[in-house]
Amino acid sequence: MIKGSIVALVTPMLDNGDVDWAALDKLVDFHLQQGTDSIVAVGTTGESATLSVSEHCAVITRIVERVNKKIPVIAGTGANATAEAIELTSAAKKAGADACLLVTPYYNKPSQEGLFLHYKAIAEAVDIPQILYNVPGRTACDLLPETVLKLASIDNIVGVKEATGDLARAKQLIDAAPEGFAVYSGDDETAVELIILGGHGNISVTANIAPKQMADMCLLALSGDATGAREIHNALVTVHESMFVESNPIPVKWALAEMGYMGYGLRLPLTVLQKSKQAEVAQVLRNAGLLK
């Protein structure tokens, strides 16, 4: 089972929108050095919605090769078409990913039965560990706990990323899930509390810019040191908040550029962080010791 601090890695881009492969290698090395426990390649923070299928698969392959089995790589392979999700998941398995993360179908708003059949079809089509991903604030689709628990009976559906920030819901899942089924936070602001409740880790935006702090925080929470974990969390609260002053990954990519790890490139319809917000985010990063 994958545990700990799992970074939802950005996909660095050049000013013209092309993937910046050299910067991607640099980011992977940064996380290996800083103690990140696992990398999500091309999740929603990795701008999966604007990458072509071939680019999507190429980024997963590059990260798997660069990591070279030092830590697990989880490939983001969700889509709002079941056939496309199967295609991406198959490609991720072929590339050597350790698991896949599948966001709920977005925009088309399926029923709970539709969600169950969607995930069941992917699990049956591709024999690789699969993690469900619920983020209704972005997808307009809520994977309810009863559907998650029904899916948890399928052997290769091994966990869920619960990004609602609803700790009562997380507790319900943790208490009712079968042994071996992992519940991950997808919300940095409530991650410590979810892990203390019995969760298995945090799939994080903030870990892009503060990997060591997030890895230490998750380790302490998993070991039962709630006081130590909360101390690190409290020091990062304003950082978490600053990463959502505009739509993710706009702020975190700007922060990484300011820190010197990559350029400012994004793909339309996303644009660089508004100038009116740059000073605010920069000050938060300085206060946290992340930017000089």
Automatic annotation (TrEMBL):
How would you classify this enzyme at the top EC level? Answer: lyase
Query: Mind telling me which residues the site (L-lysine inhibitor binding) is annotated on?
Result: 49, 80, 84, 106
**For binding pyruvate, which residues are annotated in this chain's numbering?**
45, 203
Q: Keyword Cell wall biogenesis/degradation: yes or no?
A: no
List the catalytic residues.
Answer: 133, 161
- What GO molecular functions are on record for this protein? 4-hydroxy-tetrahydrodipicolinate synthase activity
Tell me the GO BP annotations in alphabetical order. Answer: diaminopimelate biosynthetic process; lysine biosynthetic process via diaminopimelate
Q: Name one Pfam family in it.
A: DHDPS
Keyword Cytoplasm assigned: yes
Q: Tell me which UniProt keywords the record has, alphabetically.
A: Amino-acid biosynthesis, Cytoplasm, Diaminopimelate biosynthesis, Lyase, Lysine biosynthesis, Schiff base
| Record-marked site positions (Part of a proton relay during catalysis) | 44, 107
Task: Cite the HAMAP family for this sequence.
Answer: DapA (MF_00418)
Q: Which family does it belong to?
A: Belongs to the DapA family.
Record protein name field: 4-hydroxy-tetrahydrodipicolinate synthase
* Natural source organism: Sinobacterium caligoides
